[in-house]
Amino acid sequence: MQFLEESQIEEWCMEHQVALPLSEAECAVASTRFFGQAVSPRGQEADVVTAVLAELGEWDECLLWIDEWSIWPSSENWPAYYAERGVHGERRSLRVAPGHLAGGEDRDALTTFLRIVLENAWGAYVIPVMSAHTTGRWAHASHDEFVDVLVASQHGANRG
Fold first, then answer.
1. Who wins on pLDDT, 32 or 87?
2. What is the CA radius of gyration of the chain?
3. How far from 147 is each of 6, 91, 96, 150, 155, CA to CA, in Å?
4. Which candidate, 6, 39, 40, 116, has a CA 20 to 30 Å from the CA of 144?
5. Is 69 helix (H, G, I), strand (E, B) or coil?
6. Are 137 and 149 in contact (CB under 8 A)?
7. What is the 8-class DSSP label of residue 95?
8. What CA–CA distance (Å, rounded) separates 44 from 141?
9. pLDDT of residue 21
């Protein structure tokens, strides 16, 4: 797993023809909404992550871009998050390197980081690519306890 700074995220998105900013206006339809982020009882997050990643389909690379945190500080477990980053040799802060780039061998790590995002009630995008191009699908985890899997309109999917 690689950790990317904002400028590297933008470069990766341009290289893979991902139009920024990602927005619901770019979508033909929100294909699925999943609930279970930081809700009581806790523990649903792993099931939601499994469902979201299955809905996104196959990918060669997948970017988890955390763009919101500290909305619900009482639910955040920073030691667990930074411990997981440390497992991958990353010492920079989330603020400095909010991108988590997973290759095919990093599926378990992506699953773990996305689960942590949901447990902490953070906002994030999950952007898969196949053969160096966008798949036309992405997920948006909201700090408001849901995850949408979105499908780009033809126009949005082909912009670069």
1. 87
2. 15
3. 22, 28, 24, 10, 23
4. 6
5. coil
6. yes
7. T
8. 14
9. 62
pLDDT band at 36 (very low <50, low <70, confident <90, very high): low
pLDDT of residue 158: 37
CA distance 31 to 36: 17
- Over residues 114-139, mean pLDDT: 90
- Residue type at position 125: Y
Tokens of 79: 């030691």
The one-letter code for the residue type at 95 is R
Contact 19, 27 (CB under 8 A): no
b/e map 96-119, b = 16+ CB within 10 Å: ebbbbbbeeebeebbbbbbbbbbb
The pLDDT of 78-102, averaged and rounded, is 97
**Sign of CA pseudo-dihedral 83, 94, 69, 28:** negative
Residue type, 18: V
What is the dihedral sign for C-alpha 22, 13, 105, 82? Answer: negative
pLDDT band at 42 (very low <50, low <70, confident <90, very high): low
Q: List Cα–Cα distances, 89 to 2, 35, 124, in angstroms.
A: 9, 32, 22
